[in-house]
Amino acid sequence: MEERGNISIHTENIFPIIKKFLYSDHEIFLRELVSNAVDATQKIKRLSSIGEYKGELGELKVKVAVDKEAKTITISDNGLGMTAEEIKKYINQIAFSGATEFVERYKDASADKDQIIGQFGLGFYSAFMVAERVEIITKSYQEGAEAARWDCDGSTEFTITSAERAERGTDVILHVAQDSEEFLETARIRTILDKYCKFLPVPVEFEGETINNPNPIWTKQPSDLKDEDYKEFYKELYPFSEPPLFWIHLNVDYPFNLTGILYFPKLKNDFEIQRNKIQLYSRQVFITDEVKDVVPEFLMLLHGVIDSPDIPLNVSRSFLQADASVKKINTYITKKVADKLAEIFRKDRETFEKNWDDISVFVKYGMLSDDKFYEKAKDFVLLQSTEGKYYTIEEYKALVQANQTNKSEQLVLLYTSDAEKQHAFVEAAQSRGYDVLKLDSVIDSHFIGLLEQKLEKTTLKRVDSETIDKLVEKDETKESVLNDTEKEELKKVYEEAISNQHMHVEVAPLAPDDAPVVITLPEFMRRMKDMSRSGGGGMMFMGDMPDTYNVTINANHPLNQRVLKAEEKSKLARQAFDLALLSQNMLSGAALTSFVKRSFELMTNE
């Protein structure tokens, strides 16, 4: 038997176009061919299970072999196989109306090159990205079928001849082109197989060993698995990572098909680098680890796998962004994560609190970016006080309601972004019986704004943004031991001593045991500058503006009464001001040197 013919495409030569448009992704040829072999193997297994194939199945596997000397790569299976007629039907007919249309449609090839293959059923023809000639030797499972050989040199011409093959199945033999000889290196092939074929559902053999796990745990029922199984699988995915905190097993078949396991890792400070750790599969074939449109943005820091046959193998970014199934998957994952966190909080609050530092970024980011997640998470998001205790939002509101409601009947939640640096302010607040929260993570500046937006009659103030009396203003007036003339004189002394236009001085009657000088950066100013630093819209100009501080002089502190009576009023005032700067780590360089010298002078004069 010998037959010659032309591949049914309306162009002189489609293969140079395939190479030109897909070259940067040329390693996927192996994924495509091995996936085809796996499909053929699974189909024979299916036919056997329903009684349409009566023969022996034998050991079902796919083999990949490299012959460097012959410059060939062979992908073999013992699946369905094909007859000569089926070769003509499935291999030779490519529905293109012409190369011109192809080039026009995909002239912006940088965006969706992967989709080109899937769009026109070109999975097999990706072989020509690396091969100058391709052979198929195949024998159908059908009784009495004869083996056939298909041969094509990369032009539109092919030959089909009789072949010798004892068993059913298919060999695809790639005669590797000179510019693709990197694929004759076993290490290169092993890397590609490990990337794309690690969890294919049929054993894949390379160099005498099975390189894949055909039964990963995401394909099993959660009831059949133990904690150790999940931990071992995590180690298989991420050999050098610390054990995960906990995990979520995804398993749904309506209104879409989805399986997978998402792990909550222990986050490092450089958590941005941890992205792209979730792997997307379609029927256990690896697609990508860029899952931004499948997984909600706030869960991109999770690790694990997602597998959905509803996502095509040759997926593109534009497909992911537009596909309805993908949007449903995104919503489902959000709900599943929220439900899991709520369950852990409800059943084992102690463990939840223990892991809070690692999971708080996920939770707060989710609340910021998804209203539905916020509604679920508001019941288990935790607020930590400087005393180390954890509270839900409602628990914390109940704790501080009586003492921290101001004269406008607003609840004031006090917080510190750096408990060590702001220690004096925290201590001052605690001396009044106020509680102070620790909100010091990278996301907390945004989370604070969210709480103010969502919680009625509630405001948050950083402890160093005002003097203690102004943080939680009450209906009470403190008397000053200084008269108006003395207050005005004290103000002028400090203004001259400080001599800085960005330090606004005021004299106020604080408690005698409060600090003599208090330097604060107003909450509004600090928030605007924080927004500017994080790229907040309309606030970029704030980043170039110098910080403007309020300097409150405590009229009732004995030191300031002494300043008014001192011979070197300015010197003593500057010393008090520098002490206030020093307490906030704001004193350095020449100013610090002057402070040290002045301290010795004052001590000597004493």
From TrEMBL:
UniProt binding sites for ATP: E32, N36, D77, M82, S97, G98, Q119, F120, G121, L122, G123, F124, T170, R317
Superkingdom per UniProt: Bacteria
Residues annotated as domain Histidine kinase/HSP90-like ATPase: 25-166
GO molecular function, one term: ATP-dependent protein folding chaperone
InterPro entries named among the record's database cross-references: HATPase_C_sf, HATPase_dom, Heat_shock_protein_90_CS, HSP90_C, Hsp90_fam, Hsp90_N, Ribosomal_Su5_D2-typ_SF
Keyword set, alphabetical order: ATP-binding, Chaperone, Cytoplasm, Nucleotide-binding, Stress response
Keyword ATP-binding attached: yes
Residues spanning the membrane: none
Keyword Cytoplasm in annotation: yes
Family: Belongs to the heat shock protein 90 family.
UniProt-recorded name of the protein: Chaperone protein HtpG
Organism: Pontibacter flavimaris
